[in-house]
Design a protein that fits this description.
The complex is a heterodimer of chains A (about 110) and B (about 110). With about 110 residues, chain A is mainly β. Chain A contains no helices and 11 strands. In chain A, the strands form 2 sheets. In chain A, strands 2, 4, 5, 6, 9, 10 and 11 form a 7-stranded mixed beta sheet that branches. Chain A is globular and about 40 Å long. The N and C termini of chain A lie far apart (about 35 Å). Chain B is built from no helices and 9 strands. By secondary structure, chain B is mostly beta strands. Chain B starts with 8 loop residues before the first strand and ends with a strand. Classes of the chains: A mainly beta (about 110), B mainly beta (about 110).
């Protein structure tokens, strides 16, 4: 299994541009989520999904959209990039049992100028 | 979800056991204790979790006190590759978020 994969690894955007961060997992996990990590800080939840067709907001959802059309994929869309969205973005997934641990992707490092 | 308290940093000699403490005095009955680590610039890595009983896997052991108000993650023979930030997280089965604090920065010294 490849686990959780994310693309791209690095991205530079100008203020106002939009883009989609891709996340895929091949473990047939129902639960997927997106976090952001700012320098020297812990991770904060942006959006999550408990299954295909179901999404919900996390702690810091403003400026981001998500969709979950398949079990495998959970893309994160930045609608109009702002410098405050400069961060490292991590996607994670876990199995059906809500007690299991989450598996994280390698991250996307986004800079907005 | 209950908050956790961890020391900001610890050192451990290579080959020795690393014991990382975590206080979670407000933990409730259905909340699990999870440990993750983050090696520089990489995604967090799940290590282990437990509810009441001590747990062991190929990476580490988790010791939870009888009153469940604290726990210790044990890396039995620390290597240089174990240098990372270790996060102790408490989460109920119905919660969807993991509240990452600032964790403990473990440095394994040759």
């Amino acid at each position: 299994n490849a686990g959780v994969t994310q693309t791209p690894k690095f991205q530079v955007l100008k203020t106002g541009q939009s883009m989609t961060l891709q996340c895929a997992q091949d473990m047939n996990h129902e639960y997927m989520s997106w976090y952001r990590q700012d320098p020297g800080m812990g991770l904060r939840l942006i959006h999550y999904s408990v299954g295909a067709g179901i999404t919900d907001q996390g702690e810091v959802p403003n400026g981001y959209n998500v969709s979950r059309s398949t079990t495998e994929d959970f893309p994160l869309r930045l609608l109009s990039a702002a410098p405050s969205q400069t961060s490292v973005y991590f996607c994670a997934s876990r199995g059906d049992s809500s007690a299991t641990g989450q598996y994280f992707g390698p991250g996307t490092r986004l800079t907005v100028t | 979800d209950a908050k956790t308290t961890q020391p900001p940093s610890m050192d451990c000699a290579e080959g020795r056991a690393a014991n990382l403490p975590c206080n979670h005095s407000t933990i409730s009955g259905n909340e699990y204790v999870y440990w993750y680590r983050q090696i520089h610039s990489q995604g967090p890595q799940y290590i282990i979790h437990g509810l009441k009983n001590n747990e062991t896997n190929e990476m580490a052991s988790l010791i939870i006190t009888e009153d469940r108000k604290s726990s210790t993650l044990i890396l039995p023979h620390a290597t240089l590759r174990d240098t990372a930030v270790y996060y102790c997280i408490v989460r109920g089965t119905g919660a969807n978020n993991l509240f990452f604090g600032t964790g403990t920065r473990l440095t394994v010294i040759p």
